[in-house]
Amino acid sequence: MDAVSHGAWGATLIRSRALVGWAALVGLLPDLLPALYGVYRYRWAFFKDMTNQSFANNPEHTYIILYRWCHSLIPISILTGITLAFAPSWTVLAIPYYLHLLLDIPTHQGIWATRLFYPLSDAHVEGWDWWRHPWVSFGNWTAIIAINIFFFTR
Ligand SMILES: [Zn+2]
Prior knowledge:
Blueprint: H1 3-13, H2 20-42, H3 45-51, H4 54-57, H5 61-70, H6 73-86, H7 94-104, H8 134-153
The protein binds zinc ion.
Zinc ion binds at residues 30-31, 71, 100, 104.
């Protein structure tokens, strides 16, 4: 799913005023961390390649490895365990990260498919790439807007 909607989902789920900004940021992290690497490595050419799909069709090896680490349950579960031990009140922020991984499973395919147990396993589901199937994004954003309207009007 698109990175912005992951942030919106994080903010939608964690409605605490004190944590909502952090929740949005944590929801973005699995896509944000590889993107920061892409910007560091390629500067503005990274965005140009993203918009013309050349990068999406043929990502650099280091980028895809980082992307898969960020979309694996293993590193986030280790971090969540450490957070639970030393700062348990912040553990709730792991929820947007886990939701990001969950939403990416049916909305990515091929090289971008979510490998939940990377690097131990390459197992993945062939979903529908959200950028190739506009109805996926439409349904996702409709759900985000509907849930927020429900919470803000009750
Ligand atoms: Zn993602």
